[in-house]
Specification:
mainly beta, four-stranded antiparallel sheet, globular
């Protein structure tokens, strides 16, 4: 009943910026957390960032800390601002949602129930 649609991916030069958007619809619970994951060819899907329902808590992978910012500025969308992009950021980026109450923001794919189709981000050197 929850659908997530990512947008904003594309090709960018190293050092550039992109903003990914995730629009979601359906039944969103108060304890919902929204996250971003990415997956490169031959690699496992890895955690990027996540935010809780009220935006009071966020979590970032060490590899993106200080460069990426997750935010929820609307009730039906979550954003990932990506600055100082590096070639190693190249991957397909997925938006994910979890409706269950969380004591801490989860960082593994298995802890998220809903997923978007992904959007490709390619960073050239």
């Amino acid at each position: 009943q929850v659908q997530l649609v990512e947008s904003g991916g594309g090709l960018v030069q190293a050092g550039g910026s992109l903003r990914l958007d995730c629009a979601f619809s359906g039944r969103i619970f108060r304890n919902n957390v929204m996250g971003w994951f990415r997956q490169a060819p031959g690699k496992e899907r890895e955690f990027v960032a996540a935010i809780n329902w009220g935006g009071s808590s966020t979590n970032y992978a060490d590899s993106v800390k200080g460069r990426f910012t997750i935010s929820r500025t609307r009730t039906d969308a979550v954003y990932l601002q990506m600055n100082s992009l590096k070639p190693e950021d190249t991957a397909r980026y997925y938006c994910a949602g979890e409706y269950r109450p969380q004591s801490v923001i989860p960082t593994t794919p298995k802890d998220y129930t809903y997923w978007g189709q992904g959007t490709q981000v390619t960073v050239s050197s």
